[in-house]
Amino acid sequence: MKRYSTALLFLLVFVGISAQQDTINITAKISENSNLISVDQDIIYYNTTDLPIKKIKLLNWISAYKNRNTPLLSRTLQDRKTDMYFATKEELGDTDDLKIRIGSSGWDYLSGNDENIYYPLAEELKPGESVKISLQYLLKIPHKKFTGYGIDQNSLSFKYFFIVPDSFENPDQSPQYFQNIEENQSPGNYWKINFDLPATYFVESNLERIERTSFAGPLNKDPEFLITLKSTDQMITEIDGQKIELDFGYKLNADERQNLEFYLPLQLHFIKNKIGNLPAKIFITEKFKKDEDFIGIDDLQFWKFHYQLFKNHEQTDLNYFSILSKAIVQRSVIFEKSNDHWLMNGLKTYLEIEYLDRYYKDRKLLGDLPDQLKIFGLKPLKFFRLSKLELSERYGLAYQYMVTQNLDQKIDEPFEKMSNFNATAISHFETGSLFAFIAEKMGQEKFDDFLKNYLTKYAAEQVDQKVFLDELSLASGYSSDFFEDFIKQKNRVNFKLKRFRKIDDNFQVKVSKNTPQTIPFKIETEEQSGEKQTFWFDTDTSEKIVEYNIPQSNAEKIIINDHYIFPEKNFRDNYLYTKGVFSNMKKLKLKVFKDIPNPEYNEIYVNPRLSFNAYDKVLFGINFKNGSLFDRKFQYSFTPYFSSGTGQLAGSGGVSYSFQPANSFYRSLDFGVSASHFHYDFDLTYRKLGAFVGINFAKNPRSDIGRGIGFSYNYLEKDLDPTKQNQTEYGKYNLWNLGYGYSDRSLIHEKSSNINFQWMEDFQKISTEFSYRWEFAEDKKVSFRFFGGYFINNNTKNDLFNYGISKVSNYAFSYGLLGQSATSGVFAQQLIVAEGGFKSYLGSTANKWITSVNVDSHVWRWFNVYADAGVYKNKNQSAEFIWDSGVKVKVIPDFLEVYFPIQSSLGFEPSFKDYGQRIRFTLVLNFSAITSYFRRGWF
């Protein structure tokens, strides 16, 4: 048997060499209780280029873990992870004692600090020729918590840590995009690896096992290894006479194993029927399982509440189908992750969509949650459209959400440049939906036959996107011709049902599309009984309105591309009714709660509102708006209130429109008008009319940097107190603002700045603000804020428009003050950190200029210390220096915080009799700010 194994090994090596594959032979020695690996390595390095080369290039990936200055560290910070940034030296990894020898020459020492190692050859290597490279080095394995690969107390999991041959491609790739993602860094190589391990250690790999600690074979992807003190799990099944070995890099629990014993053969049969072949061995690590789980079916748990959306067996089935689909697809051909991601991920998602259609057709997106969640005996989620959406609609919804944000990216964007959310919504979901769309158009069996033929024909070869798309076009009867151009741009395709007319037993339906791409579309007709008929139509390169004949006389509704089957920008014009008062129209629907929009209706959200201020007291209102959980270009919101404090009506409202071109220097161009009417003092109201235009500049979706310019005009009218002399008061005034803002919400170093020019009849002033927050230790931050303001001209009649020192006057009614005019009591203690930003009452206003610096630093748990210092000047007075300091308690960080002044220019404040009135608090009740806070790092 050993003789046959040796012969087989020789044959494999010969096949690998004859195909000009690099071969890598490694002996790795690992000591007990150590993160050091001693490596002896030989590489047969082929010149696969068309030109002679004078140097070789090797990839030393582990050096990306060596310190804070690597592109890998930048990538982890983009993903909102600080583990590596604050790691100790012992937790990091690198390469030491690196020696190299080319052919029979002597050993040469190299630095192990470089990720890319270039080494000159004594003689140039011609195309197709090879050279033997010998390496000796010591690997220091990093901690597993950084990327999922490395060492922890129980195991050593590694991938990409050995030095491998690398190509000279992508010379212009920016290092800021270097991958902390699953790569194919050395695909198609032949590997032979022997581990020298203590007898108590176990080792698993995706390579074929030769002996207990030896593995060998070719791989379309990179090898993975798991070394543990405990044995892991394994399952073996047979599919159509083929033995399939499934190795897990972890222990299965009893419930998981029982469910898998039932589902695994079913899943593998399904995948094989779709793509034709299965690998003999599948290795699933904990990291791969976590990365490829089916998104959105985990249990919900917060505080003492626990809700299970899907049953345990359903979770096991869906999770492992998703995991197996990815594992099998990426083994079928060689994918280069940066550019081929959409093809690999799209095929994986296509399999998911088909599996859901077969076995989970009636399952809803929220699973059992709408029935489980009860409040006072009611099931509130039942009132939401979200609870009625099918599980398969998740794919279109994710893409639709990113389009409404204008943060989507083109499908063939290099993967390292994609935001985390787009990696799912675009690379996986949008592409998989397109494959499912084409499969439905051309016929499911024909599409699956195409996949089988393609993956069999090009097995173990580097995938060629153009070849794939050309062959798909032929197989689909050219229905997929649009695909090649479609993936190269951010698309805003829209099919629109214009109108219909009935002629005899047929409908003549007019449809327009806004693109010259020859994209097919699907029309469905639905009768009152629910019976549906489907009609497919091809299109040409024109963008004109075309009339299509539908032989269906009893239809009550006509629909284009229902259930988000094609990634359109707008589904609201895809529905028409054929009967009743809404014929050739959309129905109107009133809803109470903000929800996923139903494109079949014109929805108006009507919901109760409660608000409060010191003068209106409790405000009872009703809000009317068209804004759903997805942003719309045209939005309106009107909220009339009844003021319990005055017995009068109050309220606010606004209308806005947003231009969001797919490809432009700006992400959105927003216009709007608004109005509000509330009380700003006892029995005194203000009325505000405003108009604005703003530009949010386009941003890299992976970046936390945003820029924008805004211009606004506000007309304000206030009731004045009739008991006071009003010659110096402003009852009416016009405010004009022009500003630029910059923000960088990065981890560790968070920055923002703005400059604003404001004017009205009696003044012109300019101000600037810069903020910087530094995380100097894990979960400990210090922030600095600088403010500078200067009156170019100031002929005002009072101090209303002056710069605030410790309290802003809020003359534009733009801050959320509970007590606008309060001079005492708890409402007067509300703090807005703006303008001077002082926490102690050190002065009222500045009518000439002011500069201030605010410092705030974490010391322990919820406690911070703060200090403010500044200089301000009023007309005809000398400049004055002021300062204060104290303790801040973060009840809810960034949203509810309490300030206790200690020492200031006034003295030791806790000794003052009115100290209780000197305590300040900030309160931010801005839902959009909260959601923006939690979505950082995704887009």
Features of this protein?
Immunoglobulin-like; 18-stranded mixed sheet; disordered N terminus; eight-stranded mixed sheet; globular; Neutral Protease, domain 2; single chain; 939 residues; 4 domains
Described by strand count, sense and barrel closure, the largest sheet is: 18 strands, mixed
Alpha-carbon distance between the two ends? 56 Å
Number of helices: 14
Judged by helices, strands and strand pairing, the structural class is alpha+beta
| Proportion of residues in extended strands | 35-45%
Can you give me a brief rundown of this structure?
This protein is of the alpha+beta class and 939 residues long.
Q: What would your notes on this structure say?
A:
The structure is a single chain. With 939 residues, this protein is an alpha+beta fold. The protein folds into 4 domains: 1-231, Immunoglobulin-like; 233-491, Neutral Protease, domain 2 (Orthogonal Bundle); 495-585, Immunoglobulin-like (Sandwich), CATH 2.60.40; 745-939, no CATH class. It is built from 14 helices and 47 strands. The chain has an 18-stranded mixed sheet that branches. It has an 8-stranded mixed sheet with strand order 5-4-7-2-1-11-14-13, covered by helices on one side. Helix 4 packs across helix 5, helix 5 (312-332) packs across helix 6 (337-359) and helix 6 (337-359) crosses helix 9 (420-442). The longest helix has 23 residues, at 337-359. It starts with a helix and ends in a 5-residue tail after the last helix. Residues 1-19 and 170-178 have low confidence and may be disordered.
